[in-house]
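Q: What does the predicted 3D structure of Chemotaxis protein CheX look like?
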Amino acid sequence: MTLTPDEHDVIVELMNIGVGRAANALSQLVQDEVLLSVPQLRFMYPAEARATFSESMPGLLAGVMQGFRGFMSGRAALLFPEERSLELVRAMLGVDMSADEISELEQETLAELGNILLNNCLATLANILNQQIQTDLPEAFNVDTPHLLNRLSLSGDGDEGAMIMLVQIDFSLRENALQGYLAFLIDLHSADTFLAALRRYLTELE
């Protein structure tokens, strides 16, 4: 997907609005300040995404996956290095717990986090672009990096014809700072629909 600088900047702005709303919701949930930002956004095909994940987050990943459909369809995922996910869960829960207790709550807590983050980002995109979108229930999972795209696949073959919107997020909570990714796997038809809606929005702003 070839974007103009203005189109790229608008998507980053919309993502920042979405994660900002998610940060407010999380701050109320954990009764502490949560800071989220989007320093980088890229569109890429699966082969490039595999290389990016192998370089930036090798090893085991903890994630939350959620299907979506409407003006665009696909799967969205929140991804963190697996070894940092327990730190994140501990920070979110805000209580002293054993590693075993934290581990038992990891999937549930990450699913709640992913639900808040992914829903806010998808809803923000749809609302500001005057479109409709529906989301499925979130599903927490663990996977090693080489098998990530197969895990997120829409068709079971790694979706070589799909487009991936990869959003880097910086996450800060209770003096814990970590970096994760939001990955939106969308088919090429949905990517065209998304771009058309974005261009209509930009035209209306002029």
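A (community wiki): The structure tokens above were generated from the sequence. The mean pLDDT is 84. The domain at 5-205 is CATH 3.40.1550.10 (Chemotaxis protein chec).
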